[in-house]
Amino acid sequence: MQVGVGYNQENNSTLAGRLAAEQAVKQSGEPAITFLFSTENYNQKLVFQAVKKVIGKSKLIGACTSGIITNAGVLEKGVGICTISGSEIQAVTCLQENIALSPWKSGEEAGKKLRMSGIDSGTVFVFPDGFAANLSELLRGIYNVLGPDFIYIGGGAGHNLKSFQTHQFTDQGIKSNALAIALVKGINFQIGIGHGWQPAGQPMVITKAEGKKVYEINGRPAFEVYSECLGGFDKINFPSYGMKHPFAIPCVGGNFLIRDPLKIEEDDSITFVTEVPQSTVVTLTEGTFDNLITAAGEVAKTAVNTVKLPKILFLFDCVSRYLLMGKEFKRELKAVMEVIGPDIPVMGMLTFGEVGTFSGIPYFHNKSIVVAAGW
Amino acid sequence: MSVNLNTFELFILYDIASFSFPEREEELMSEIIEKSTRLFGVRRLALFTGEGDGRKCLGRWGFQKESDIWRAVEERVDNSFLYHLEKGKLGLLYLEQASPLSERDRRLYTIFARRIEEILRVKRLEREQRELEKEKSREQRLLLDSIPIQVWYLKDAETYGAANKAHAEFLGKKKEELENKSLFEVAGTKEEAMAYIEGNRRVFEEKQQIQTEELVCDGRGEKRLLSIVRTPGFDSNGNVEYVICSAQDITEQKQAEEALRENEERFRNIYSQSPIGIELYDAGGQLIDANQACLDIFGVSDIEEMKGFKLFDDPNIPDEAKKKLLEGESVRYEAEFDFDIVKKMALYKTIKSGTCFLNCLITPLKTNEGARYGFMVQVQDITERKQVEEQIRYLSFHDKLTGLYNRAYFEEELKRLDTKRQLPLSIILGDVNGLKLVNDTFGHHEGDMLLRRIARILKDSCRKEDIVARWGGDEFAILLPRTPKNAVIEVCNRIKEACKEAKKDPIQLSIALGAATKEEPGQDIQEILREAEDRMYRHKLFRSKSVRSSIISSLTKTLQEKTHETEEHARHVQELALQLGRKLELSDNQLDELALLAALHDIGKIAIPNSILMKQDMLTEDEWEIIKKHTEIGFRIAQSSPELAHIADAILSHHERWDGTGYPRGLKGEEIPLNSRIIAIVDAYDVMTRGRIYKRAISRQEALEELNRCAGSQFDPKLVKLFTDLVSEVNSPLRERFFSFENVKSFV
């Protein structure tokens, strides 16, 4: 297996794409699978076309992002390419459209298409539109078809919150409101996932919720309870509180899934980045930068604790952590890089929700970091 | 990033306890998958509900196909958990994780499974309840759809909830077409919809049941009358949440009620306005009601005054009739009703007194089963009818003109009295003299008066038990039971005396009588009748001439008295006529005729009213016509007597004129009988020379000049020449032959 990583920050979309691809292909040779991450300030179509010209028949998967993560740090503008070649590698991709309509079914259909390839084990890369509805359902639909014999890694395609459209790529094309999914066999991956947020306060029950919107907590308006738990604040101050005090939902193994509150609605309901199921127990969380950074380091350690030396490291870090920590985000990357060392090429992106497994089951995470080391 | 396991277990338990009770199975399965995967890291799961052959897979996750589940269940690896929900009756839960189950895992899975079990149990109860309600609802719907009454409910004033079959069919729609529909969509027109909505709004506002009768268009566009009951249903705050409506089509019922009411009114009108009095009594004979006609008959002002009156207390009902009524028979009778008895017995207050005749029909009223429930009395006052009957009876046996019995009655009585006990039975027949003459002369009215006077005389001359009858025309018959011959003769004499003494108006009363008597039972009464008739005719014949002459003399005398014409004038006319006749060398017979004509040529004036005859002013045209009739009347009088018949024509023509402009026939020249021409001249001459009350006399010369002047126009010119010559001679023998009216009498 050969890995190539390339990135470019040319203004010209076509140029950026071509140069990044060429750089990667130069290292890997003709790839079996190509990963494409492009910041949203490029013409995605031109980037896509340019990359495709370079990678030839390689399977491709990718998404737009608000930032590309490389060994050098986060590129808020750029095209990042990772190409992997090897005769033992089998890959199949699927670009499933209109996933918002029926996420579970869309997931199942995507899973069926992947299964048709005959590949019965491997790693599933999942890059859905991060703003599409109920990505947890989407994942469960995929899993319902593919089952526990696969590892699931990925992240929601997003942007810098200034535009309303994201893009997902496979070798079949470029779409929005879609799921770009690839099944890759022949590469081993070890995953680490974590966040660093600490539960704080009493457990509460989401008594009324629908999709990403929570209406009531403990039978009372959501914002009213949230504000009360945090000592009371006005709606206008919500963004700073929401960034720092996400919700935690208990998950297997004593873990918590984080749910990031996004905005307050007129009716005092709270819209989250990802779905919060009704009748779920939640707690508020708190976290210092140090907690977050320490957690990132632990995740990296878990990922690189492999049998063999990893040849590639995929890093999917939540854009909210980047926005929250600001300049301090460098420390998080540093924590990760210090663990993995300088020799392992890194390719990743700032994501809008992360896909990773606990106990082999894929979950959609918020405000988390997923590190996948492949060999 | 993790917490203490005990604390975390609390989170799990809390999360398990927070299981919702979603309506749909898909949502429940989705929640089971979400919680089990999240809390336990379940990598595969399956949930079956039901048992035995009814078991079905509610949902699975992580399995490719159902058979994989059963294989896993059978293999039961140590990382799987199998739970029999409600000991398998409710279903089966299979959970599988990546690592082998610990005790804690089993404990938590058990809690999880029991929570699911509880949910499924509740859902089963809910389902059974729903099934029950559905069945109940279906039964209710079937029941509602089977009844003919329309039922529907409204969500608000303008919107249907649902309706039963009857209501949908009434509107010509299917039930589904009404469910949750606006009334504006269902009604034919906006106005119809608004009318419905108005009624609905009232219930929502007034919050109480309202019943109305409304004209509604059905599916065929026909207006039907519905009786609609709207009943509100309330929510927990006491507001009207819905309205249940029921309706019955009462169009035919209303029409029938209206028809019945009209019928009742019609019958009531017939009852109240019937000219026949109607009384209604109950089974015991107590008066219930009576119509106005009945009250009028009995002279009662108000029905209240008759209240309490009992049918069987009425003394005017014959006992026999009462008996029949009680036996259930109808009775009809006519009887004299005495108001005085009613007053005496104080049966009820009546303003009438005396008696009247009533026709009564009393009918027992019975049900279809034959039980008597009352009586109906129909009563008519037939007093007038009785009087008319009496009158008819009277007229059928009496002569209207004279008031005597008629021939039919006489003959009946003749048969009846022709018995031994009534012997000797006498018969008198009479024939009035001069009736034709009076009828012809004075008219039939005078003739009728004559008969009435004769009838009076006959009645007054007989006994009460005698049957005096007008036999026919101018003939009368008298039947005298137990009357011998001599008594009969006395009766005849009485009658004649009475006639003689009666006033001559216009003529002397005269009747020819003939009598006969049956003395032996063996005698044939018809023979006796014929005998009387023969005697009457013989008498008449014997006396006819003298009677006739007597009548005519009487008429002539009356005429003289009436017109003041003197015997002297009559004699002069006669003399002048005879002189002229001799001059004409007439025969003796002709001269006799001429003399008679001279005496009787104006006899017809007897029938002319005095007021015209003696009028001094100019006559009107009508009066002149009446005067001119005297020639015809005179003609008829002369014709009625054989002795005068030969001068009848001359009497008729004595006012003809030579030039044909006379009357009555307009005869001309010698068409006029000679005697008439002679009388015309001599009568005119004598009148001119003698004068009248209204005109002075002129000299002989002047009279002759007048005659000559009119010769050829009024008078025969030859006869005028002869008469002029005759009168001009000195010492003409005017007294040669003198006919006095006494002579006329003997002549006739």
TrEMBL record, chain A:
Top-level taxon: Bacteria
SMART domains: FIST, FIST_C
Domain FIST: 30-221
FIST C-domain domain boundaries: 222-358
Protein name per UniProt: Uncharacterized conserved protein, contains FIST_N domain
Pfam family, one: FIST
UniProtKB/TrEMBL annotation, chain B:
Keyword Membrane assigned: no
Domain HD-GYP: 544-739
Coiled coil among keywords: yes
Annotated coiled-coil segments of the chain: 115-145
InterPro entries recorded: Cyclic_di-GMP/3'3'-cGAMP_PDE, GGDEF_dom, HD/PDEase_dom, HD_GYP_dom, Nucleotide_cyclase, PAS, PAS-assoc_C, PAS-like_dom_sf
Residue span(s) of domain GGDEF: 423-553
Keywords attached to this entry: Coiled coil
Start and end residues of each PAC domain: 210-262, 335-394
Pfam families named among the record's database cross-references: GGDEF (PF00990), HD_5 (PF13487), PAS_4 (PF08448), PAS_8 (PF13188)
Stored PANTHER family: CYCLIC DI-GMP PHOSPHODIESTERASE TM_0186, CYCLIC DI-GMP PHOSPHODIESTERASE TM_0186-RELATED
NCBIfam families: GGDEF (TIGR00254), sensory_box (TIGR00229)
Entry protein name: PAS domain S-box-containing protein/diguanylate cyclase (GGDEF) domain-containing protein
Naturally occurring in which organism (per UniProt): Desulfoscipio geothermicus DSM 3669
